[in-house]
Design a protein that fits this description.
CATH class of the largest domain: Alpha Beta
Structural class: alpha/beta
Number of strands: 15
CATH superfamily of the largest domain: Vaccinia Virus protein VP39
CATH architecture of the largest domain: 3-Layer(aba) Sandwich
Helix content: 25-40%
Distance between the termini: 22 Å
Number of domains: 2
Shape: globular
Strand content: 15-25%
C-alpha cells in the first residue's frame, strides 16, 4: 500500500472531486474543510478559487483569511479519501467558531484512521508555516472528531455557543515544543560523545544479534539515520520513516556515496505505505518518546508489529522517568520539581510522572511498559538499560582513555539487563518477538 499524502486540487482530479462531492450529497452529509465545495457544481471554478485564497493579493473575498486546500490520497492513486482546509491565521470570525483547520473524510472511507492521518499531515504543514498553536473546533455531539483531535495532541479549552444555541468544542494543539526540539537538536553529536556512544553501541549490539543474512529492516522514527545508516552499511536492506523534514534533510546529507536507504516522511501511527509481514527486524527507537495516550502507544506498537514478519523482532525504546527525576529534577535542576508536583506532573507519593505534548518527552516506568504490552501476542527477549549510569557519570566517561572506556563498556554490557539496576537508566530498550497467530 502506498503512503498517504496531501495533494492540492488540480484539473487532473476534476472527475474525482466531482465524485467526492456527490458522495456527500448522496449521504446527506456536510462537506467540512472544502472551502465551499458543496456550493460548486463547476469544479474547475472551485479549484481556481482555492488557489486564489493562498495569497493576500489574490484572495477573492478580502474579509476572509488566506489558506490552503488539500486532498488526502494514497500516493500514486486517484481516489480522494478526505479533504482538509488550512487557514493561515485567525480573524475575529473564525477565532471563535472555525479555527485553523477544517476537514472531512469521505463517507465510504470513515472509521479507517484517515481523519487522524490527514490531521497529522496537515499539522506538519502548520509547522512549515511557523504556527506555534493550532485551533480546531468541532460540533459538541461529534465524538469521533473529539477523539481524533485529542489523539493528535488537542487540549480542550471550552464550549462556545452561537445565537441559535448550537455548541462547539474548541481545542488547541501546541506544535512548537517537539518541532523546536528536533529543529535545534544535534542528534548526531548526542550519540557521538563517549558517554553518548554507550546508548548507540548497546542498542546496535542487540540489533546485530538478530540481523540474519538478507534481513529486511525498517526504522520507524529514524531521526537523522544513525541506526539506519549503520545497518545499511552492513549490507542490509533498510527502509526509514521519519516525521520531521529537518531530520530527513540531515539524514540524506550523511548518506555515504552509493548508499541507498528508502527514506519516507511518515508517522509511526500510520504505516499504510507498507504491507503486512514485510520486515524481519523493526526498530521503534524514538516515537514512543513522544506519544502521550495509551491509544497512540498501542497504535504505534500495532503498526510496528503489523509490518513485521511472524517471528520477526521488534526493538522499542522508552524514556524512563526515575532517571529524569533524579538528574533533571534534583541534580541539574533543569525544571522546578516542586512546581511539577504542584502542577500534577509528578505524584508526590509514588513519583509517577504525567507528561503532555508541551513536555516533549513521555516518561514511563517498566510497569507501564509491561502493562502496554499485555494485549500483544509477543515474547519478550530482552529488557535493556541501554545507558544505565552513563548520564550520571558522563564527564568521567568522556575523560576515560580507550583502555578504561573499553573496560567500562564490558562492565556495562555485563549488567545492562540486571533487574536490580535497569530502573535507573535514561533509555530502556524492549526487545520482543512477534509470535505467529
Amino acid at each position: 500500500m502506498s503512503a498517504l499524502v496531501l495533494v492540492k486540487p488540480n484539473e487532473k482530479y476534476i472527475n474525482e472531486i466531482r465524485n467526492y462531492r456527490q458522495e456527500f450529497i448522496a449521504h446527506e452529509s456536510h462537506i467540512h474543510g472544502t472551502a465551499g465545495l458543496s456550493r460548486y457544481e463547476d469544479i474547475p471554478a472551485w479549484i481556481t478559487r482555492s488557489f486564489l485564497f493562498e495569497k493576500e493579493e489574490t484572495k477573492p473575498e478580502p474579509e476572509r483569511v488566506t489558506g490552503e486546500q488539500f486532498m488526502l490520497m494514497q500516493e500514486g492513486e486517484n481516489r480522494i479519501l478526505g479533504m482538509i482546509n488550512l487557514r493561515h491565521y485567525l480573524n475575529d470570525a473564525i477565532a471563535e467558531w472555525g479555527g485553523h483547520i477544517g476537514y472531512s473524510v469521505r463517507p465510504t472511507e470513515r472509521r479507517k484512521g484517515y481523519g487522524k492521518a490527514m490531521l497529522m499531515l496537515c499539522l506538519e504543514e502548520c509547522r512549515r508555516l511557523g504556527l506555534d498553536r493550532v485551533l480546531i473546533t468541532c460540533d459538541s455531539d461529534n465524538e469521533a472528531s473529539f477523539r481524533t483531535v485529542e489523539s493528535c495532541g488537542g487540549k480542550f479549552e471550552r464550549m462556545t455557543q452561537d445565537d441559535n444555541g448550537k455548541e462547539t468544542a474548541r481545542y488547541w494543539i501546541t506544535l512548537a515544543p517537539l518541532a523546536h526540539y528536533y529543529n535545534n537538536r544535534d542528534e548526531e553529536k548526542r550519540l557521538a560523545s563517549k558517554h553518548g556512544q554507550i546508548e548507540f553501541l548497546t542498542t546496535m549490539r542487540y540489533i546485530e544479534r538478530y540481523l540474519t543474512p538478507g534481513a529486511k529492516v525498517i526504522e520507524i522514527g529514524a531521526s537523522t539515520g544513525r541506526y539506519s545508516r549503520a545497518i545499511a552499511g552492513m549490507g542490509h536492506s533498510v527502509d526509514a520513516v521519519e516525521l520531521f523534514q529537518h531530520n530527513i534533510d540531515i539524514f540524506r546529507e550523511y548518506l555515504s556515496s552509493g548508499q541507498y536507504i528508502n527514506i519516507i516522511k511518515g508517522d509511526a501511527l500510520n504505516l499504510s505505505a507498507y504491507a503486512d509481514n514485510t520486515f524481519d527486524v523493526t526498530l521503534l527507537l524514538g516515537p514512543l518518546y513522544h506519544l502521550y495516550t495509551l491509544e497512540d502507544k498501542q497504535q504505534a506498537i500495532s503498526e510496528a508489529l503489523r509490518v513485521t514478519k511472524p517471528n520477526g523482532i521488534v526493538f522499542a525504546a522508552y524514556c524512563i522517568s526515575d532517571a529524569s527525576i533524579v538528574q533533571s529534577g534534583f541534580n541539574h535542576k533543569r525544571y522546578d520539581i516542586i512546581d511539577f508536583v504542584k502542577k500534577g506532573k509528578i505524584n508526590a507519593d509514588t513519583f509517577d510522572t504525567f507528561s503532555a505534548p508541551e513536555d516533549v518527552f513521555e516518561l514511563v516506568r517498566k510497569d507501564d511498559i509491561d502493562s502496554l504490552m499485555k494485549c500483544f501476542n509477543t515474547e519478550r527477549l530482552h529488557y535493556v538499560g541501554v545507558d544505565l549510569f552513563s548520564h550520571f557519570i558522563g564527564e568521567a566517561i568522556d575523560e576515560m582513555d580507550d583502555e578504561v572506556f573499553a573496560l567500562y563498556l564490558r562492565y556495562h554490557y555485563a549488567v545492562c539487563e540486571r533487574a536490580d539496576l535497569v530502573g535507573i537508566t535514561n533509555h530502556a530498550l524492549d526487545v520482543f518477538r512477534k509470535l505467529s497467530s
